[in-house]
Amino acid sequence: MDARQIYASDVAFTPSVKAIQTRKDSRRSYERMEAGGSWETRITPDLKAFIEAQTSIFLATANTGGQPYIQHRGGPAGFLKALDDKTIGFADFAGNRQYITLGNLADNPKTYLFLIDYAHRRRIKIWGEARVVEGDAELMAKLMPQGYKARPEQVILFTVSAWDSNCPQHIPQRFEAADVAAALAERDNRILALEGEINGLREAIGAARFR
């Protein structure tokens, strides 16, 4: 009987991966990580906040032949929701109608979510399984962003197996256009206020000279 300890990180650290880690001398550090509790398997409050702040995500699936596919999904902050400590859901909007992700999930539920925050240089990797839910009006209403102009076709529910946070190394720092516009508007308003104060001081100084 195999008495080998099972870790959450085994979802990614297969025997082949561990063999390469051993050869490249990183296995011992990951063994310490495993002994310390391995990866998280439930959605923490911090992860929930990160999930629901996303406006752009990547969802990876694979067909029965092992051919991978990555699909981008986007929407307003909150379109991706943590429904409980194991489940993430979103309304799947109509797109180019290729349905590659849906076809892959029909054959292979294993799925991977990649979330990245360029502004704060943080990325989260989430492994799990996903399923497609059609015809559930109540669930769709719960997940459809209010006022967002998109046509939802179905819901995708993702069950978390494990997740990990990457280091910020090599992540370029980028900012959302809306955030940049807001920062520039705040700067411009501050400049206008300061110019008003300067003009007021000039007028006060000028008036004082003629007293």
In short:
Helix content is about 35%, strand content about 25%. The chain has 6 helices and 7 strands.
CATH architecture group name of the largest domain? Roll
Question: How would you sum up the global shape?
Answer: extended
Strand % is 25-35%
Can you list the strand order of the major beta sheet?
2-1-5-6-7-4-3
CATH level-four homologous superfamily name of the largest domain: Electron Transport, Fmn-binding Protein, Chain A
Overall mean pLDDT score?
Answer: 93
In the CATH hierarchy, what is the class of the largest domain?
Mainly Beta
Question: Radius of gyration in whole Å, from Cα?
Answer: 25 Å
What's the number of extended β-strand segments?
A: 7
The oligomeric state is single chain
| SS-derived structural category | alpha+beta
Q: What is the helix fraction of residues, given as a range? A: 25-40%
Residue windows where pLDDT falls under 50 for at least 5 positions: none
What is the number of helical segments per DSSP (H or I, 4+ residues)?
6
Query: How many domains comprise the coordinates?
Result: 3
Structure characterization notes:
The chain has helices at 15-23, 27-35, 45-52, 100-107, 137-143, 177-209, and strands at 56-62, 68-74, 81-82, 87-93, 110-117, 122-133, 152-166. It is α+β, with helices and mostly antiparallel strands. The protein folds into 3 domains: 7-38, no CATH class; 40-166, Electron Transport, Fmn-binding Protein, Chain A (Pnp Oxidase, Chain A); 175-211. A 7-stranded antiparallel β-sheet has the order 2-1-5-6-7-4-3. The longest helix has 33 residues, at 177-209. The termini are far apart. The model has no long low-confidence stretch (mean pLDDT 93).
